[in-house]
């Protein structure tokens, strides 16, 4: 099994959630890392993936909102500084598509989730190093992970949607 590094300059961990039932708030986590081992990244079924996100690195382009998300109403980053994902099963769906199932832990709650993952291909960077690209997506119900804060709207509905769409874009290279 070979080890692989994330190229942080060409990768991203993104999310989006409904806001006031009419629009979407989008954000990123700026700090994350992974331990990735695989015999062949073109065939993810050989991989073991341990992903760690610094919860306090949340960035929605609004300092007040980010501070609220870091507080006890949401991530409580002082008590629970990381969000983790550990793969438990990876299956091939189509030639370039995989289902990566694993344990996602937010706060003190761990649930099995599956990321629909596309292998975008491989290439050689200008320094002669092989690089591989992937895009993975899942949707979780935030309330299942203890992120239950909300506010009712006068017009009906709620301020924050339950479903969080998570998209991970990775470029990796040999360690």
UniProtKB/TrEMBL annotation:
UniProt xrefs under Pfam families: YceI
Family affiliation: Belongs to the UPF0312 family.
Protein name: YceI family protein
Superkingdom as given in the UniProt entry: Bacteria
Taxonomic source organism: Lysinibacillus xylanilyticus
Lipid/polyisoprenoid-binding YceI-like domain sequence ranges: 3-173
InterPro entries: Lipid/polyisoprenoid-bd_YceI, TTHA0802/YceI-like_sf
